[in-house]
Amino acid sequence: MTQAPSKSLTSAMIRFRIMAIWSGVMSILLWFVQVPIHVFSHNTTLQGNLVWIALIHGYTYPLYVLAAFQYCLKARKSFPTTIIFILAGTLPIASFVAERRAVRDYNALTK
């Protein structure tokens, strides 16, 4: 039987999961709603009403980076894996994949 994960790893995991899901949702909204409307729509009122998506994503992405970095430090991930986890927040689906991988690794520690 393996040792249970520490409390700090558990809390880092929870923070990373929350921020990965948030970042993924905001990236999907940004890439598939705001950007296409900005590029293809000539309605400036509609474009202006969707600026909040880019602003919220831009202000919360650094929180995702911090959460990913902290999780990778606590889980003792390698440097390339840490970079991949951080960059996963820039692509719409990649943060969901990183979150699932982190959960799988975390659950392997608890068994």
Report what the structure shows.
The N and C termini lie close together (7 Å). The longest helix is centred in the first third of the chain and has 34 residues, at 7-40. The chain has one domain (7-110). The mean pLDDT is 89. Helix 1 runs antiparallel to helix 3 (51-74) and helix 1 (7-40) runs antiparallel to helix 5. 81% of the residues lie in helices and 0% in strands. It has 5 helices and no strands. The protein has 111 residues and is an all-alpha fold.
Architecture blueprint of SSEs:
Elements lengths: L6 H34 L3 H6 L1 H24 L4 H9 L6 H17 L1
Give a quick set of tags describing it.
111 residues; elongated; mainly alpha
Helix content range of the residues, please?
over 70%
Question: H/E series, N to C?
Answer: HHHHH
| Beta strands, count | 0
Determine the strand fraction and express it as a percent band. Answer: under 5%
Please work out how many helical segments DSSP would assign. 5
The quaternary structure here is: single chain
Q: How many structural domains in the coordinates? A: 1
Terminal CA distance reads: 7 Å
- Please outline the major beta sheet: none
Which parts are unreliable, with pLDDT below 50 for 5 consecutive residues or more? none
Structural class call reads: mainly alpha
Radius of gyration of CA atoms, rounded to a whole number: 17 Å
